[in-house]
Write a structure and sequence with these properties.
Elements lengths: L2 E7 L3 H11 L7 E8 L5 H8 L4 E5 L6 H9 L4 E4 L4 E3 L4 H11 L5 E8 L5 E2 L17 E2 L8 E4 H7 L8 H11 L4 E11 L8 H19 L2 H21 L4 H21 L6 H8 L4 H22 L1
Parallel strand pairs: 1-2, 1-4, 2-3, 6-10
Antiparallel strand pairs: 4-9, 5-10, 6-7, 6-9, 8-10
Length: 313
């Protein structure tokens, strides 16, 4: 089996270099690296051409963000796509060996979700999985999952071939995962496959990021859920995205723009994209976790971290 590491980047020269160097340490050598550059102007292009001529590198004249990953997949020759970011890399040199063993032993597993370690938050684990699991005695087939972290996931290429690529930045992993599950594919979480995420802030505009995430959150909600679920979810999304904007100290004008954008995307999605999931599949695509539960957990952990930082001061 061959692995294709697909990385989309923009103005993260140093992050990208660290990422590439860490991938090159993998003991499993049957892999390629593909970098799609979203119009970087920080000498990333020069670095790639001069220091990594063996890597498939494509420079785009415009920034298409996450959609660049889809381009990278088209140029890939592997059986497995390793979905990652330019500020993320495997924790150790044996990650690819573990991935290959899992896939070879389990043809019914199609997507492997890795454990996300937030390096800049004292190596804290991103606690996204809704249930307590034994991370020391992991079942051979891992744990059932409904999505994966974009910082590290192994995806059989047959999944892309059947359902297509990502829809763009913002809830792209869970939207892709929902389509995969509906198409009959199986996602499993393996806490022993770990990646380091450095959470680079290079080339990020907080206001634009918040508006886009708010839109995509609402879009996902109205694309897949029946009205009895999507309608109350709408109020939760408005509330929690507004809370996120306040905590990020975004201006009232950004808030208004985001609110209007969410209203517009609801109407657009209902008219053009609605694909209501059968009620018996809802539990599978959510792991029986409502948006309210997810958001309450997220903000509980967020405020807990803030309080802990204050105490340390």
């Amino acid at each position: 089996m061959k692995i294709s590491v697909v990385i989309a980047t923009r103005n993260r020269k140093n992050d990208l270099k660290r990422t590439i160097e860490n991938f090159k340490k993998q003991t499993y050598k049957n892999f390629e690296i593909i970098v799609i550059d979203n119009a970087s102007d920080d000498n990333t292009r020069s670095m790639m051409l001069n220091e990594y001529p063996e890597i498939k590198y494509f420079w785009l004249p415009i920034n298409i963000d996450i959609l660049a990953i889809n381009i990278g997949i088209e140029f890939s020759t592997g059986d497995i796509i390793w979905r990652t970011d330019s500020d993320s890399n495997p924790e150790d040199e044996y990650v690819f060996e573990k991935v290959i063993k899992i896939f070879e032993a389990n043809p019914d597993i199609h997507i492997i979700c890795a454990e996300d370690i937030e390096v800049n938050q004292n190596y804290q684990i991103w606690d996204w999985y809704p249930y307590k699991v034994d991370k020391l005695n992991i079942p051979s087939k891992g744990y059932p999952a409904h999505t994966f972290a974009g910082t590290g996931a192994a995806i059989r290429k047959e999944v892309y071939n059947k359902i297509g690529g990502f829809w763009g930045f913002g809830f792209e992993e869970i939207e892709f995962s929902t389509r995969a599950i509906l198409a009959g594919f199986n996602i499993r979480y393996f806490p022993n496959i770990r990646v380091h995420h450095y959470a680079s802030t290079n080339d990020r505009i907080q206001s634009e990021r918040w508006i886009t995430i708010s839109k995509q959150f609402m879009r996902y909600n109205w694309k897949y859920f029946p009205v009895k679920i999507s309608l109350p979810n709408t109020f939760y999304i408005f509330f929690f995205q507004t809370l996120a904007a306040i905590l990020s100290r975004l201006s009232i004008f950004v808030l208004i723009e985001g609110w209007l954008a969410m209203i517009v995307i609801i109407m657009y999605t209902i008219r053009n994209e609605r694909q209501v999931v059968p009620i018996e599949k809802i539990k599978t695509i959510t792991l029986n976790q409502t948006i309210l539960k997810q958001q309450l957990k997220f903000y509980y952990l967020k405020f807990k971290n803030i309080i802990n930082r204050w105490r340390k001061k």
